[in-house]
Amino acid sequence: MTAPTFFLYHERTMSKYIIRRLFLFFPTLIGASLFIFALIRIMPGDVATIILAGPSGDANFTEEDVVMLRERLGLDRPLPIQYLDWVWGLVTMDLGNSYVLDRPIAGEIKRQFPVSLELGFFTILITWLIAVPIGIIAAVKQDGLTDYILRGIAILGLAMPSFFVGLLVIMGLSITFNWIPPLGFVHLWEDPAVSLQQLLFPALALGFSVNGTLLRMTRTQLLETLRDDYVRTARAKGLSERVVVMRHAVRNALLPVVTIAGAQMGLLFSGTIVIENIFNIPGIGRGVLDAAFNRDLPMVQAYLTYFVLVSLSANLLVDLTYAWLDPRIRYS
Amino acid sequence: MHLDSIIKRATGLVLALGLLFVLACGSSDEAAAPAAKKADPTATPTTQLAVPEMKIPTATSTTVPPKPGVTVAAKPKATNTPVSTGPKPIYGGTTAIGGEDVGGDAADPVSGQAGYGWSGLGLIGNLWSQVLRFSLADKQTVATDLAESWSMDADGKTYRFKIRTGIKDHEGNAFDAHDVAYSIYRMLERPNKLSSKRQGCLRAYVNPVNDENGKQRADAGVEAISATELVIRLAAPRTAFVACFVSPWTAIVPDTYVKAIDDSGTYRDLSPVKGELIGTGAFKALKVEPDNLMQMERNPNYFLSEYPYLDGYTIYAIPDANTRVAAFLSGKVDYLGLFGDAASPADAERIIKQLGADKVRTPAVNANGWRGFPLNVMKAPFGPVGDPKADDLRDAIQWAANREEFNKLGFNGTGHVATPYFIGWEWIYTKDQWFKEYRGFDSSADVKAKDLADAQALMTKHGYSKSNPLKVYFVCATGNRKDCEIFDQQLARIWIEADLYLTPDYASADAAGKSGDFQIIQISKGLSFQDPDGYNVSTYLLESDGGRNFSGYVNPEWKKLMDQQLTMNDQAERAVVLRKMARLFHDDANMIGMVRPGVIGLHRSTWQNWTPPIVHTDSYSLERVWLSK
């Protein structure tokens, strides 16, 4: 087989794989949208009544008020029409208005998304910067004191939920140093120094549990790889241990770690719900919690769809990356 | 060395340096937005307070409208008394406040959302003015604001206000009586009928503006006679009208945006992100970022030239209670807002322990609400009124209810025991008189033990016991679940077994035929003065009259007295009638009043050498907090 033919074949199999994955992507998205729509509708209590009753439930209103509000919110239309209208809104990015904020939902998500993305990106960066090197060290120093300590930290990370770590961090900072990160969120491009101060601690808290998984995964995979024949061959060639580990073993060992990291992106976004609240980050997670507390159903619906979309996209991206890295996947 | 190796090492070095830089930045104390100027560390502590400190303001005769024909004019200058005894206070500067949110989401004073919150009002209420307001001097009596003077006609139903001239809104536009009239019209008759419940008392007292055909009535509730003259017409004389009208909920907005919104037929709330939050108040909004911050700056055109003392302030949204405390401890905020933003007594103690009692003040303030349990006296087992068994059962509950325990468990002990009316109404009875005259309210151990024993005896008399409890149906709004559970435990002591039905709203429960033998009621009607007239509308009158009396029972004698006191402008004479009403209210025992909640507000006491005065939430405003001249 000549080289151009090989690449052509490579591209074709990759394209087929992408199409196959996209065929799975959209039906899953539609199924999830139906599920979310139904879930919101079967929740107890009439939305119009809930809004009119107020948070304490004791506000006075008449049946006429309920009818008017239901009409205004479009709740008087048949469910299939409401669903199609909502799906069309998703496609055109017109998600309607929040019941509570009286502002376009799309605008809210547009405002919050970059904030959560910055936090997510920073968390992933920190996670990789910390977990992978430590995982490698733990593997190289297998069963030594360093390994035990690092594994202990990893287990601690797995055992402690991110919100608890967040609380410990914020309280520890204020009690020990009389300091917390600056208030009033600013984007990275507006003021990098302040933004980094604001993002570092939530990212560390959020990344702590993710770190645990990644660290252990890196260690396990590297230990397995270090026992492979080609590593033995490399050592036999007289290469230094550093070169053997870093150049030969780590590259191959990290392949499954990529998959795990991708799968954990969904977890990362769910973690932001609490972490963003603790660290005053006005992102998607904060919006979700507010919407849920305020019983702002269209907002909750939009956020759920957003989470599904993010998770599906992350999985798709990971699968494609993995297929690109490991040809066995796309041939299967 | 290979090029890729050099690149990798260089990248690693940059990332490591970046991380170190970030960690180093961690020690910086700079905030993203303008932070408060810090207190002089050498400042002498001014006051040391125990937690919680309580001040219950007493309503005074100043709640009385002027005698017919008498015009009350604005005082030329506020005469506040300095609170600080320490070093000379520094005027100006900016300060930072931590709140659960920035209050901008439902910032419109006539927000369509029923839950337009107190903390939002306290923090952003400085954007707006009122026609009448609380006195800046004593924080309890009525003072003029947008009005220069005001008077009441002889019929007791017509109030006339002379609006100041030369007022400009935050955008520099002229503001006059027509703006005021439109604001009040919006409170009374917002076309989409989604007015905030906070102005409920106003709607209960003031005539509608339009007739059924949408034409202005001859006796319209509000009318701007000219640019400086405003008339408000009541359906009947109501002493509590003034109490309602000075409430901060009746904030007046310029008609620039609201009129355009209403004319377009959308009837939406004023939008904070569209720059529509303008007013005539002491501060104007400089920056509004939902879920993040709201920055205010001094209004240079404010019509009260001596106010405000601050150059500006920033409200930071800090949704998590622990983080708010951390922000306070670290000095990132100088004040924690009230209600959802308030600190718990445990947090307040922790803060005092860490910062020192001289560095922080923790005033406990009354919340403007009430918790009570209305009983269905129209049917067995708690009715009808006059049936000996039903009367005994209601008495047993009245005596067995332990208000102080409810206060401690439900409100961390910061609430106040609620009598048929509020305990703060010492112009009706003193606290001791309330306890002496009305059985069940005194929660001291020996008294309550006897009350409980007698209540049990009443239950035994009717055949109830631990093994044979009275089974009743208790409807509880989900938001009050904790309160309901505490009361449930108290009922169990007199062998009443309540089947608790949780509902998000009472309308759904009513519709499902589940109104219950009793419910919980949580009242907060935006009435600032502690006037029973306003609260009775909620607790004893029918829903059609603006109350939530789910059983429909009204004592006819009480109603007669209620109508009688509406026309009485002398508080001493009125108090006599109110005492009779309180007696009837208590003896009917159709409403078990429990507690008036309280909250703790935290101040950094030495901020710019000022010790903040203890304020009642009714009069909370940054014009006055900290910097009372």
Describe, in plain words, how this protein is organized in 3D.
- The complex is a heterodimer of chains A (332) and B (629).
- Chain A is mainly α and 332 residues long.
- Chain A has a domain at 112-325: MetI-like fold (Orthogonal Bundle).
- Chain A is built from 13 helices and no strands.
- Chain A has helices at residues 3-41, 47-53, 63-73, 79-92, 105-140, 145-159, 162-177, 192-226, 229-236, 241-278, 284-293, 297-325, 327-331.
- By secondary structure, chain B is α+β, with helices and mostly antiparallel strands.
- Chain B has a domain at 369-596: Dipeptide-binding Protein, domain 3 (Roll).
- The longest helix of chain B is centred in the first third of the chain and has 23 residues, at 3-25.
- The radius of gyration of chain B is 27 Å and the shape is globular.
- The N and C termini of chain B lie far apart (73 Å).
- Residues 15-66, 75-86, 114-119, 609-621 and 623-629 of chain B have low confidence and may be disordered.
- Classes of the chains: A mainly alpha (332), B alpha+beta (629).
- Chains A and B meet through α2, α3, α5, α7 and α8 of A and α1, β12, α7, α14 and β21 of B.
CATH class of the domain at 112-325 in chain A: Mainly Alpha
Helix content of chain B: 25-40%
CATH class of the domain at 369-596 in chain B: Alpha Beta
List SSEs of chain A in N-to-C order.
Answer: HHHHHHHHHHHHH
Strand % of chain A is: under 5%
Distance between the ends of chain A: 21 Å
Helix content of chain A: over 70%
SS-based structural class of chain A? mainly alpha
Number of helices of chain B: 17
Q: Label the overall shape of chain A.
A: globular
Q: Write down the oligomeric state.
A: heterodimer
- The pLDDT mean of chain A sits at 84
- CATH domain topology of the domain at 369-596 in chain B: Dipeptide-binding Protein, domain 3
How many runs of DSSP E, i.e. beta strands of chain B?
A: 24
Structural class of chain B: alpha+beta
CATH architecture level-2 label of the domain at 112-325 in chain A? Orthogonal Bundle
